[in-house]
Specification:
This protein is of the alpha/beta class. The chain contains 15 helices and 12 strands. Bound molecules: N-(iminomethyl)-L-glutamic acid (NIG) and fe (iii) ion (FE).
């Protein structure tokens, strides 16, 4: 019911959607990876580039060299692009510092981005993203540093979750168990990058550790999917990273939905494997590459991630009593937002009851 003081928004001839909730992003870092993009266009793979000193570690050197203000400016620029594409909430990971000082600087910058833009930003500590050069051959020693930094991040309330990249050449099951144990002692949730380039049993590990989510899952098989369903772990699918790396193996989204899993899709926005900030583009990949319906793609971009991030009672759907987080689009059938791939942006965005100009 309309009450005195309520703001009326004219949405005639528009489609109105809940603001997108992008539950997996890496939006704050130094430099860019445009040269790698060119290298991949001429045939080099993501793993070959990483083995030659590029990849995550090249962004780490540039991030370590960046001042806090440069990192904040980078995050603000991306926050504005998220909003312009209809996203009103993101989960934002650190993970390009890989030493205590830079990881905390990144988490501080992520916090400032949330405070100084209209975007809602929820932070995750991803110290276990890659092993930095100074710890080459000493993964356990690096994990000791990761756990100590997690203590600092938790004490300073700079993170809500902790994340780890479980993949050959990065971190293994034992590292994940140590991180899960420490995160639990701080009451932080666990997120996990698993089964991106091969099936290492990452989904089953996420189930064993009662992670909040298992992300990527390109190589997860039916056994892994059953384990996620049984343990109540939310799958977060990142089809734009498959697309942007020029790969063909998308996760088994249809099978996950058929197992009753509340799938989430997200951009995985980062400078290397997925430089897109657009949820409409991700929804297009859902429909064209993973056989999801537009309705399933929308659910996976709004209400399901809202629940994953603990905000299901506030955002993610258009319901009386929720926060006014919504977007207006110049179309009569909302499916056009997905159908006209790469061509649509909202005409207006409201986040937390405020119009974003
Ligand atoms: O989610 N998989 C690990 N991390 C990122 C890639 C980060 C990068 O290439 O800079 C991802 O795809
Ligand atoms: Fe990621």
């Amino acid at each position: 019911m309309i009450q005195p003081g309520d703001e009326i928004v004219d949405a005639s001839n528009c489609s109105v959607l809940p603001g997108f909730v992008d539950a997996h992003t890496h939006p704050v870092y130094g430099g860019d990876r445009l040269d790698e993009f060119s290298l991949r266009a001429s045939g080099a793979s993501y793993q070959e580039i990483a083995a030659a000193g590029g990849g995550i570690l090249s962004t780490v050197s540039k991030t370590r060299a960046a001042s806090e203000q440069q990192l904040i400016d980078c995050g603000i620029r991306h926050a504005e692009l998220f909003l312009r594409n209809g996203t009103t909430t993101i989960e934002a990971k650190s993970g390009y510092g890989l030493n205590p000082e830079t990881e905390i600087r990144l988490l501080g910058a992520i916090k400032r981005v949330g405070e100084s833009t209209g975007l809602r930003v929820l932070p995750t500590y991803l110290g276990a993203h890659a092993i930095p050069a100074e710890f080459a051959g000493n993964r356990q020693g690096y994990m000791d540093t990761v756990l100590a930094t997690l203590d600092t991040a938790a004490d300073q309330r700079l993170a809500l979750w902790s994340d780890i990249f479980v993949e050959s050449g990065y971190f293994d099951a034992e590292d994940a168990r140590r991180l899960a144990h420490r995160a639990k002692s701080h009451d932080l949730g666990l997120r996990m990058h698993v089964d991106q380039f091969g099936n290492s049993g990452g989904a089953r590990l996420a189930a064993e550790l009662a992670a909040a989510s298992a992300d990527h899952l390109e190589y997860t098989d039916i056994d892994g999917i059953s384990a996620l369903a049984k343990a109540g772990v939310t799958p977060v699918l990142l089809p734009a990273s498959v697309y942007c790396l020029g790969l063909q193996k998308y996760p088994l989204a249809r099978t996950m939905v058929d197992h009753g899993l509340p799938i989430v899709v997200a951009t995985d926005f980062n400078p290397g494997s997925s430089p897109t900030l657009s949820m409409p583009f991700v929804m297009s990949l859902c429909c064209t590459q993973m056989r999801l319906s537009p309705e399933e793609a929308l659910t996976a971009s709004t209400i399901n991630p809202a629940y994953l991030l603990g905000l299901g009672d506030k955002i993610g759907s258009l319901e009386a009593g929720k926060v006014a987080d919504f977007t207006l689009w110049q179309c009569n059938d909302w499916r056009e937002i997905i159908y006209h791939v790469g061509s649509t942006r909202p005409s207006q965005v409201f986040c937390g009851g405020k119009a974003i100009s």
